[in-house]
Design a protein that fits this description.
single chain, Structural Genomics Hypothetical 15.5 Kd Protein In mrcA-pckA Intergenic Region, Chain A, elongated, Plasmid pRiA4b ORF-3 family protein, MM3350-like_sf, Plasmid_pRiA4b_Orf3-like
Length: 275
């Protein structure tokens, strides 16, 4: 209910701007539309929401400040439109089980490291109940629940295109600092598209292995490397094979579930105070 009111407010402001905005603002909006190439009102609405948020945080509610902020946000978007039209193809493998559990996926090049992490965790069936961090040549970046002392910045503050990635670039995602799932990430290709690229355009191209078992990393490795020992171990725990998921990877099913799983993880990390 609350979010519906917020979006309705953004829609109303958008309509007012298009009808009664200043000449400077209308000119800036025209520049944005020229760079985007097609009509994408959602881009301008994102700028409106950002400007609204700043005004609310500063408890300053006057048109001059809002318009100045919106123009600044539009300038920022114009500068980054070229990267918003790019996609990035990644090869992601579970370290130690690279031959058994891996994915190849296409994502927007203009996305935060946090969103990239949610996407990767989604395609490997993680439930988002643990901390994560991403390591690359530029540093280490963690989820918002990480202690500041252990990271260089939060993953939500850094965009993929800020890292100046190219074919062959390497990153890693560390999920669950106790069970230690490491995903090795390699850039396969960065491509310019004809239109803006968003998370909904993401696509899983191929893969193998169901994914991970939460809190059971050792058993997952045992399953792939020594099946007889795995069976003996779970029997010792009073379990059997029916207590574990062994589903084969299905690319069609994975793509059907991808966006829903991604949004679930994003809400889980960004709407909760702790993991």
């Amino acid at each position: 209910m609350l979010m519906e009111r917020v979006f309705q407010c953004v829609d109303d402001i958008y309509d007012d701007i298009m009808k009664e905005g200043s000449q400077d603002l209308k000119q800036k909006i025209q520049e944005l539309e020229n760079v985007v190439g097609t009509n994408h009102p959602e881009i301008l609405k994102k700028g409106i929401m950002l400007s609204m948020t700043f005004c609310l945080n500063q408890l300053q509610f006057h048109d001059e400040l809002f318009e100045a902020l919106l123009i600044d946000n539009i300038d920022y978007m114009i500068e980054n439109i070229p990267d918003m039209k790019k996609s990035i193809q990644l090869q992601v493998s579970l370290r130690g089980l690279e031959q058994h559990v891996h994915r190849q996926i296409v994502l927007p090049y203009y996305m935060t490291l946090a969103d990239m992490a949610y996407a990767i965790l989604a395609i490997f069936q993680a439930d988002g109940s643990h901390l994560f961090s991403i390591e690359c040549q530029q540093g280490r970046f963690g989820c918002e629940q990480c202690d500041e002392e252990m990271i260089d910045d939060y993953a939500a503050n850094v965009f993929l295109n800020d890292l100046q990635l190219k074919k062959g670039s390497q990153l890693s995602l560390w999920y669950d600092f106790g069970d230690d799932y490491f995903f090795d990430i390699q850039v396969i290709h960065i491509q310019t598209e004809s239109d803006l690229n968003e998370i909904g355009d993401g696509q899983i191209l191929s893969g193998q292995g169901y994914g991970i078992w939460e809190d059971e990393h050792a058993l997952l490795e045992m399953y792939y490397k020594d099946y007889d020992e795995f069976i003996e171990k779970i029997h010792d725990f009073g379990l059997d094979e029916d207590d574990f998921i062994f589903d084969d990877f299905d690319v069609d099913v994975a793509n059907e579930m991808f966006l829903e799983d991604f949004e679930f993880l994003r809400r889980n990390y960004e709407d909760s105070e702790s993991i």
